[in-house]
Amino acid sequence: MSEQTDNPIRDAISEAIADNPTILFMKGTPERPACGFSARTVAALQSLGAPFAAVDILPDPRIRQELSAISSWPTIPQLFVNGELVGGCDIVTEMYESGELAEALGVDATEGTAPPAAPEGAPVQAAPLGIENRLG
Amino acid sequence: MPTPEDIKTRIEAALPGASADVEDWTGGGDHFRATVVAEQFQGLNRIEQHRLVYDVFGAEIGGPIHALSLKTQVP
Known about the structure:
The structure holds two protein chains of two kinds.
Chain A: H1 8-19, E1 22-26, H2 36-47, E2 53-56, H3 61-71, E3 78-81, E4 84-87, H4 89-98, H5 100-105
Parallel strand pairs in A: 1-2
Antiparallel strand pairs in A: 1-3, 3-4
Chain B: H1 4-14, E1 19-24, E2 31-37, H2 46-57, E3 67-73
Parallel strand pairs in B: 2-3
Antiparallel strand pairs in B: 1-2
């Protein structure tokens, strides 16, 4: 049993970060991003064909509060790989352009080829957790 | 509402010797884009570099400053 606090939202977020090798906290969903920064970050991940879990922070403002408290990072989106904060839209975009993102995600990015057309619904894992469901 | 000039002044005051280029991304006074060059970034990874700048504004990020897009460089 991992360490529990008396804060179920914070626990759910920590668990999600621990349980998913690549997880993106965003506004909206990968299919329907609700913010340009989230959309850009999703696009970078999808064009690498990297599987990732996604959590929409919009349903409850406490998700964002607790997330930022955990990560010491004020903005959304936030990408975590192997439990570590990689960055938000700016850093992810920079890393995508330099090839570091593919490396961090352990995917093979073949330079110069067009991003593969993502098969309908393929690379994106369903959001793995019901943080919203724990809000009681 | 902060102006790009305010943002620049505050970053440069908090990180002595740094230079910041700030633009109002949307013209709406709440989405800014900044390129910051600072000796203080030496030896830090990107996350740590960005945190140094975000920390200047604390809770204003996500509040009055809706977005502050950053590019950080060591001189």
